[in-house]
Write a structure and sequence with these properties.
The structure is a single chain. The protein is an alpha+beta fold and 158 residues long. Helix content is 22%, strand content 35%. The protein has one domain (10-33, 65-154): Hotdog Thioesterase (Thiol Ester Dehydrase, Chain A, Roll). A 5-stranded antiparallel sheet has the order 1-3-4-5-2, covered by helices on one side.
Length: 158
């Protein structure tokens, strides 16, 4: 199943609105050179992320975004468009985090989210777990980042 959006807005979205097999795409968001450098200087100060001249002579032939910066950009799209504003309770974590291709300044990234599994809680009937595959795609349609997210969501109250 491929759908462009949810049937309910983010501020009225509950566990029941996440359907296994659904696929959503959000974005784009542009990767800006100044943000690549600023983020890396603060959180991942490697020259491949902070120094364009040194990065040009490095293994990627130019400046690339920190994988953590890419993850942060995708998290922004995930929260703004996919994760319920009213029913999100917590996340026990993520699995299979992968940085698959370099992300460069000027790239236009989109987030594709596939609902892999929905599981009502057996011990707490007011909630359930949604497992989603998040994939960042660049402007060429190449997957540059992926992870599996687990999110606890409240059920709609009757």
């Amino acid at each position: 199943m491929n759908v462009s959006g949810f049937s309910v807005p983010i501020d009225d979205r509950y566990f029941e609105d996440y359907r296994e097999g659904s696929v959503f795409t959000f974005g784009p968001i542009e990767v800006e050179e100044s943000e690549v450098i600023s983020f890396a200087e603060r959180f991942d100060p490697q020259t491949i992320h902070t120094d364009p001249a040194k990065a040009a002579a490095g293994p990627f032939g130019g400046l690339i975004a920190s994988g953590w910066h890419t993850a942060s950009l995708m998290m922004r799209l995930f929260v703004d468009n996919y994760l319920s504003a009213v029913a999100s309770l917590a996340s026990p974590g993520v699995d299979e985090l992968r940085w698959l291709r370099p992300v460069r300044p000027g790239d236009q990234l989109r987030l594709r989210v596939s609902v892999l599994e929905t599981k009502p809680s057996r011990s707490k009937p007011d909630r359930g777990m949604v497992v989603s595959l998040l994939e960042a795609l660049n402007q060429s349609g190449e997957v540059v980042f992926s992870l599996k997210a687990m999110n606890l969501l409240a059920k709609r109250r009757a």
